[in-house]
């Protein structure tokens, strides 16, 4: 089983310079690059909660494990975040790579622009998902991973299909390049907005007859269902703490940012650590930190320290922009805007709606996890979810960040916007960026739209106050 950096207690104080004893970059699943804010006394370190440092250590340790896997006799799997079968893969001792995480990490490190252009020169269309092109460009450049270590060729590609057709084409390209074996878990789409028993049974049948036998053969490790159950017990504990953290945003002020901050929080559980004791400890520490912030009436920690007065509470739909993540976040906290909930923070699991990995029903639980991923939901279900968040988190409205190259999120978003406005009476707005292509982030345009939206929220408040 993989070893990782042990989680530090919340009381550990970090060095004044974030480069001291650590790699030069931060590593959310998802988030927090090495940005620094200037000032009269020169640049100062980006501010992070203790739990943010912990997740950075975990994510970076996984890259080191991947880089050294073949030297230590371990096989390597590649899979995607939505519907990932991490607990199952750990049963076979695979080192675990997640290609879209590699792409966004490279985006935060300002490497993805060149990778994307290299992939386009090699024949990829401008309209192809930029995660794919960033990953292909990284392969073309010698497979140098986000932390500077060479990532190994995967021994098995495990595709758990959860609503994103691009994933299938992506793995076809990787299989073509490396000639590695591929196993697919086909997950039925929730077209009717619910999981029917026959859908779950269909996924379980594939796990038993196709996926597990293939993983046994490639790894040389016999499947042990009791081992899977133990990992799931750890997963459930971590999931309980994560939900408590995300739902803490119902407080005023919210102690967290449920979009920019949440990408740190979801990192370990959405990637290679769900089911490991290190992840359980991470979420225990995080939960304690956030409870303390609630008791003290504090808002989120931003890269420039404590956030000031909470003026706007938003729900956000769509992934963040990674290449300008710090600048993007700053546009929000400079205006006193905090995201209290986001759909992106649920892309690896809808735990806040009650799902937990269940050690008493391990294979059925894996099936239900895959079936319930956000990208596997139909549009009415997504609209219901967003409206529920606006109501329960007392948000001022909805902001949609439409991603140019991500059809899984962007298809139908204008319909979502109009329907949410109609049902909640709250204003909604639409901005456009991309995942990891710096050519599609116009800071001035995004800032102007956000400022106009905040003015709209203010006007709604004045009108509502006058009506009373």
Give the tags.
17 helices, alpha/beta, 4-stranded parallel β-sheet, 468 residues, 10% strand, single chain
What does this structure look like?
This protein has 468 residues and is α/β, with parallel strands linked by helices. It has one domain. 46% of the residues lie in helices and 10% in strands. The protein contains 17 helices and 10 strands. It has helices spanning 50-68, 86-90, 99-108, 112-121, 130-140, 165-178, 197-219, 225-247, 262-265, 267-270, 277-295, 325-333, 362-371, 379-392, 407-410, 413-424, 443-467; strands at 76-78, 95-97, 156-161, 181-186, 301-302, 305-306, 312-317, 337-342, 397-403, 428-433. Strands 2-1-3-4 form a 4-stranded parallel β-sheet, sandwiched between helices. It has a 4-stranded parallel β-sheet with strand order 8-7-9-10, sandwiched between helices. α1 packs antiparallel against α11. The radius of gyration is 21 Å and the shape is globular. The termini are far apart.
> Total number of β-strand segments?
10
Radius of gyration: 21 Å
Summarize the helix and strand pattern as letters.
Answer: HEHEHHHEHEHHHHHEEEHEHHEHHEH
Strand order of the largest sheet: 2-1-3-4
Structural domain tally: 1
Tell me briefly what this model is:
The protein is an alpha/beta fold. It is globular, with a radius of gyration of 21 Å.
Note the topology:
Blueprint: H1 50-68, E1 76-78, H2 86-90, E2 95-97, H3 99-108, H4 112-121, H5 130-140, E3 156-161, H6 165-178, E4 181-186, H7 197-219, H8 225-247, H9 262-265, H10 267-270, H11 277-295, E5 301-302, E6 305-306, E7 312-317, H12 325-333, E8 337-342, H13 362-371, H14 379-392, E9 397-403, H15 407-410, H16 413-424, E10 428-433, H17 443-467
Parallel strand pairs: 1-2, 1-3, 3-4, 7-8, 7-9, 9-10
Antiparallel strand pairs: 5-6
């Amino acid at each position: 089983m993989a070893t990782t950096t042990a989680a530090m207690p919340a009381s550990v104080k970090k060095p004044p310079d974030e480069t001291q004893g650590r790699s030069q970059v931060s590593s959310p699943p998802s988030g927090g690059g090495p940005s620094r804010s200037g000032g009269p006394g020169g640049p100062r370190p980006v501010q992070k909660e203790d739990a943010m440092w912990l997740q950075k250590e975990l994510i970076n340790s996984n890259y080191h494990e991947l880089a050294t896997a073949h030297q230590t006799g371990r096989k390597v799997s590649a899979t995607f975040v939505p519907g990932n079968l991490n607990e199952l893969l750990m049963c076979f001792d695979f080192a675990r790579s997640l290609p879209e995480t590699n792409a966004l990490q490279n985006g935060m490190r300002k490497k993805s622009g060149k990778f994307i252009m290299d992939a386009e020169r090699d024949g990829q269309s401008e309209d192809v998902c930029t995660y794919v092109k960033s990953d292909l460009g990284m392969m073309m450049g010698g497979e140098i991973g986000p932390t500077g270590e060479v990532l190994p060729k995967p021994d098995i590609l495990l595709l758990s299909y959860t609503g994103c057709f691009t994933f299938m084409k992506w793995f076809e390209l990787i299989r073509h390049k490396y000639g590695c074996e591929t196993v697919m878990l086909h997950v039925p789409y929730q077209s009717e907005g619910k999981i029917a028993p026959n859908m779950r049974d269909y996924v379980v049948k594939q796990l038993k007859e196709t996926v597990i036998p293939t993983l046994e053969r490639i790894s040389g490790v016999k499947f042990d269902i009791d081992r899977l159950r133990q990992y799931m017990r750890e997963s459930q504990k971590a999931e309980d703490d994560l939900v408590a953290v995300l739902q803490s945003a119902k407080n005023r002020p919210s102690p967290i940012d449920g979009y920019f901050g949440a990408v740190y929080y979801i990192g370990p559980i959405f990637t290679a650590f769900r089911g490991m004791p290190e992840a359980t400890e991470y979420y225990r520490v995080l939960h304690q930190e956030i409870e303390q912030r609630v008791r003290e009436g504090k808002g989120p920690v931003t890269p420039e320290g404590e956030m000031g007065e909470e003026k706007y509470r938003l729900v956000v739909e769509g992934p963040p922009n990674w290449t300008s993540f710090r600048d993007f976040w700053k546009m929000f906290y400079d205006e006193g805007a905090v995201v209290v909930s986001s759909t992106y923070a649920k892309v690896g699991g809808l735990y806040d709606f009650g799902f937990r990995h269940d050690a008493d029903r391990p294979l059925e639980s894996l099936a239900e996890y895959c079936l319930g991923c956000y990208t596997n939901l139909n549009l009415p279900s997504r609209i219901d979810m967003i409206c529920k968040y606006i109501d329960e988190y007392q948000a001022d409205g909805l902001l949609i960040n439409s991603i140019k190259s991500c059809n899984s999120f962007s298809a139908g978003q204008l319909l979502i916007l109009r329907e949410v406005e109609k049902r909640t009476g709250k204003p909604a707005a639409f901005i456009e960026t991309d995942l990891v292509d710096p050519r599609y982030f116009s800071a001035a345009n995004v800032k102007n739209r956000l400022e106009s939206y905040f003015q709209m929220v203010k006007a709604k408040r004045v009108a509502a106050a006058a009506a009373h």
